[in-house]
Amino acid sequence: MIESRMIYILIVFGLFVISFMPYISAQEHDSEVEIISSSDLRFKQMGESFDDMIFRIRSVFTFDNQAKVELLNDRSLDLKSRQSSWIETKNQVLTQLRSGELVEDDREDLIEEITESHNEIIKKHVELVQQLNDIKIEAQAEGETSLSENADSKLSEINNLGLALGLSEDEKNSLASELESEVTVNEPITEDDALDIAQDNLNFNAENVQRTNLDGRDVFIVTGSESETSGDTTIDRNYEVTIDVATGLILSANLVTPSETESGSIIESNEEDDTDINIDIGTNVEVGSQASIDGEGSVSESSGVSIGGNVLLNSDVQDNIQQLIDSANNMKINIIVTKENGNVVIDKNIEGELTSEQENLLVNIEEELRTIVNESSRNDARITIEINHKRSESIPEEEEDDEIVINTNIGNY
């Protein structure tokens, strides 16, 4: 009897130990720190390259644009999963870098691979937005309302995924701030460096650069554009890239692609003024005109309009900007409208004196911009507008029979 009881106790005890072995094994496994090498990261990138190739093949052989919109939407979700995986990997790499146990070459290799993957996600996000925008604009031009609305809806969803931030947790916790103490930088980058970084990584014509402070960090905001004409439709793609001054890392990139046909341009033809102005407008437009009277005296005007950000303007804002330019003498106006923590903030700077009519137009523009930014689905909605109008004249008294000759030059800058 005693032996049977002892055997029973031993069996129960054995089963109890066996039941806990998986837990013990898991605990031991978790306690082991997984070491990630640069080779591991490159292998991960190779697998993603294969997925990218499959996507490109599917995209080429998807001829129906409604189906292509869905394909691009699926692509965005795949990129979001890829981003989440890389953020987890990045955090593991940061733990290794901060352990102080890596030699300098290994540190540099790991940082290089993480930075490359960060840039690739941003680049693929921009490419994705570009393709959807192209479909949307062409659908609008062809009157395909359902396709245009579907593409626009998917664009809003994709822009809220955070892919434009690469491997940054959010705008205030950027990869640059995480790597700053780990990256060896001899000196901050220059404006020329910022232009090169943007152009080399995102393959567009980087034209302008401005230094500012964003969430406590000094950054360069690089802008540029490219145009493509398909039939009667002109697509103007306008890029904006934010680059960290201290590290040279890209913080984010956005693509805004307004499509303006002749009837949608900010500046339209005006037959009454004998001035043939009829252009497509993207982000930057400059219009200059000069009138001479029998070779004596002259009137010259130049108007520069620069529009940036990540939200498209409507026709009401464009009309008011046009009226403001038409009524102006010398003035320079900068307006920045941003959404911060759900609130709309407007910063503006005015050089030159405005008439009461111009002041009213400016108030209307500000309120329309406030509404557009407030109603945008983007949490980081932002619009920047710069208007620079110059007028000079030297005109003697005119006679009734004087012949007026007007030459108009139009160019993008």
Integer tally of domains: 3
- Low-confidence segments, given as residue ranges, are 15-32, 259-297, 400-413
Oligomer: single chain
Return the structural class.
alpha+beta
Q: In which range does the helix fraction lie?
A: 40-55%
Shape annotation: globular
C-alpha Rg (nearest Å): 29 Å
Helix/strand order: HHHHHHHEEEEEEHEEHEE
The helix tally amounts to: 9
Output the keywords.
single chain; 413 residues; four-stranded antiparallel β-sheet; 9 helices; alpha+beta; six-stranded antiparallel β-sheet
Compile the SSE list and pairings.
Layout lengths: L1 H30 L6 H23 L4 H35 L4 H38 L3 H15 L15 H5 L11 H12 L2 E10 L2 E14 L2 E12 L5 E7 L27 E10 L2 E14 L5 H12 L4 E10 L2 E9 L4 H20 L6 E13 L9 E8 L2
Antiparallel strand pairs: 1-2, 2-3, 3-4, 5-6, 5-10, 6-9, 7-8, 7-9
